[in-house]
Amino acid sequence: MIALLALACVNDTWEAPVDPPVVAGSPVVGAAEAFMRLPVGIPLAGYTPRCGCLGGDLFKPDTRQSAYTEAFIPSAGVHTHPAIKVIWIENGDEHLVLTKTDNIYSYDGIVEDLERRLGEATGLDLDGKVVHTTNHSHSSYGDFSDQITFYLGSDKYNEEIFQRFTEQVADVALEAYESRVDAKIGLSISHDWDPDDRIYRDRRGENDDLVVGGDDPFGTGKDPQLAVMRFDTVDDEPIAVMVNFGMHGIVMDVDNPLVSSDSGGGVEAYLNESFDQPVVVMFTQGSAGDQSPAGEQDGFAQIESIGERAAPLLYEAWSDTPTSSDPIELQTASRAIPQHPRQIQVTRNGTVDWTYAPYEPDGTADNEVFGPDGELLSPIDEFNTDFGALFCGTGDLDFPVGKLPGVSAYPYTNCLQAELLGNLISVFFEIDPDLYGLDTENGEFAPMPIPDTLKASTTATHIDGLMLSVDGVAQTSDVLFGFFPGEPTHMYHEQFRRRVKAELGLDFGLMLGFSQDHEGYLLIPEDWLRGGYEPDISVWGPLAAEHVMERTLEYADELLLDEVHQDSDPLNQFQPTTYPDRPLPTLAPDLTPDAGIIVTSVPEDFWVPANFEVELVVPEVVPRVQGVVQLAWKGGDPGVDDPKITLEVEEAGSWVPVTSRTGRPITDSMHDILKAHTPDPLRPVDVQQDHYWWAAWQAVGHVQDRAGLPLGRYRLRVEGQHFAGGSETWPWASTPYSVTSDPFEVVPATLDVQLAGPGLSISLPAPIEGWRYIAAGGDFAADNPVLGDLTVVWTTSGGELTETVSGSTVNRRTELTLTPPPEATSVTVTDGFGNTGSLALP
Predict the structure, then answer these.
(1) pLDDT for 83-139, tens place per residue?
(2) Is the pLDDT of residue 165 over 50?
(3) What is the pTM (predicted TM-score) of this model?
(4) Which residues contact 538 (CB under 8 A, 6 or more apart)?
(5) Do residue 523 and residue 661 come from a single domain?
(6) Shared domain check, 237 and 95
(7) What is the pLDDT of residue 657?
(8) Do residues 404 and 384 lie in contact, with contact meaning Cβ atoms separated by under 8 Å?
(9) Number of structural domains found in the chain
(10) Cα dihedral 654/655/659/664 (nearest 10)
(11) Which of 252, 432, 537, 676 has the fewest Cβ atoms within 10 angstroms?
């Protein structure tokens, strides 16, 4: 505004621009989905121990190198490709573009690039109107973020991966834009929807007795809130659904080398198939900072079990969510909030005044954290740093130097100053000093403060007139959506909800974490001071996260609650971090002219998951559940080749893709097919290599009827690409190839039948190579109960006697309480799918 007034002084004909009025309009919605496909070999993000600098060699699949890693270990294959989901909302007055990917966290550079790409393609001004949020999988692609601080979580930035990433998301967003139709929308909030921790659970014990603000009964422990936003056509046909609750993506551990969408992917996969047609299901994170996944069993089967447990409850919540096509007001604003200690302040609407004391290089803290009544003392002199600090909670990264000076108060004693960490990062990841103008001769190895730590990008959306149901009570309401740059904990989200209502006068506030940017864990000060793991991953101490919340509430109040659309940053005070330009890598993929050849003889270092023995001859007969088909072939370099593997079935003499209940083709992007890659030789990456690919499919239904896959003739079809030469950077020129396996016959499984006490014990055994979830209470690689009614046929000297019974699960098997007929010589048990087992009786 100052600049505008100055212009007015020199031009008396100039008139101040008039902010356009907010106009209510009926909702219009489009949605689309796809799977992200990036090169195998990209590091998996989320676990710092995957860095070779911190012992990552312990978790390497082998000694391979990758063109897409700097300090982290390479990935070796795919369990599920990360999903891309987009919901585009407008009302004829404003647009909001919700994009979600299955990755560890967001990055403000992604948001900026999506705004540019989508604005250019549509001609719309989408500045500040695009949201990028993630499901926080710790087993998904890294390399895409240029936040130096978080190189320790996802490896060094790679320009090629960034461009591939944003291009794919933008393509899906444009598909959503083109699909827009008049719509009905609504939001429902449910509490205590998972009271027995079957889906997710609280993981932070340090704050179990901490109560801050108000009398909200959900202020501590597990966040029990589920939010479901429903998008339908005006004829009540479902378009999309967004489900929001907190659940970390950490089912798979640091030793997993396969890309996976993890727990959130399991939720989406199973909820997808609850509908009768394809519906875009978007899982977004709420208070995931201190919530862990539950489920049962281990590994990939546990991911599926979470989906199976969650889907019926989520579908019921969706069914109960009221919608309306009545006009809504839609306003969105975005800002990058300054957060250096000299700018950080927490006031809690004027009830406190918490700040940091001025930085003193040789200062001595008073080490008095709390006052006589337990109040937080301010200004805080224990967090005495000009550049930030990490690992303040547990102190797991313990160095004899780099601590905060003069501090003896917990948890500040654990803090490691960012200067030391920055220098370590510069060594581990070979930061180019010229990009940041560093004087290495005078000890400048990393920019200080680290540029990406100085701003936190957030977005707020206000929808007035939204149909909102809270625990079954519906009304037309004002709702504020807050998109926050990090890992919100339950108490942080709860405080946001409470303050939106108390300070802004709105009916409800909903936080979506892991959005727009990344600043680590988001805790309120009292919770941060309890220590533990979560305060380890934050840069600016106990006040930073609530400072970001308060500034977001302030600009939401300033910009979104009046009757006009305002420029959210007219003086460019709140622009995102500016990152240095990066060149595209120039290491070209290998030429592989023999791509497309099926192989049964593979190199000595051929890698498959640990539970597999390589068996590359496709069997003629494959029993349900117990049969696994493996296929290997020579393909292209991962720089151009991410082979798409499709399961096909023979119908009326033709081969067609097998589809799920909703019509989605069964491919390697889903949990049905595993994929792995082995270069030969394993290293170095800059010499000519052959590239061997491997796929495995277990004869299990996708989601429904897992033990009842339809019988018939099947095969695997592979479509890939190999480098054609000529290109100097991505996009690499490529040539297609294809591979088709020998066909195989899927037949019923064999049940294991045993005598047990006064009856029978029945199991559907899974193979040692298994990874699929078969049945609740079972084991993905051993016994599984047989669900539903069973047909029991007794063979006697006088003929056969048949009865239908159901049993109970005991020790992963189904036990039937029944009495064999006199003179019975054998018994045959058949489940509802025709899987059968027999036992000769003594």
Answers:
(1) 999 999 999 999 999 999 999 999 999 999 999 999 999 999 999 999 999 999 999
(2) yes
(3) 0.97
(4) 390, 392, 486, 519, 520, 521, 522, 523, 528, 544, 545
(5) no
(6) yes
(7) 98
(8) yes
(9) 3
(10) -110
(11) 432
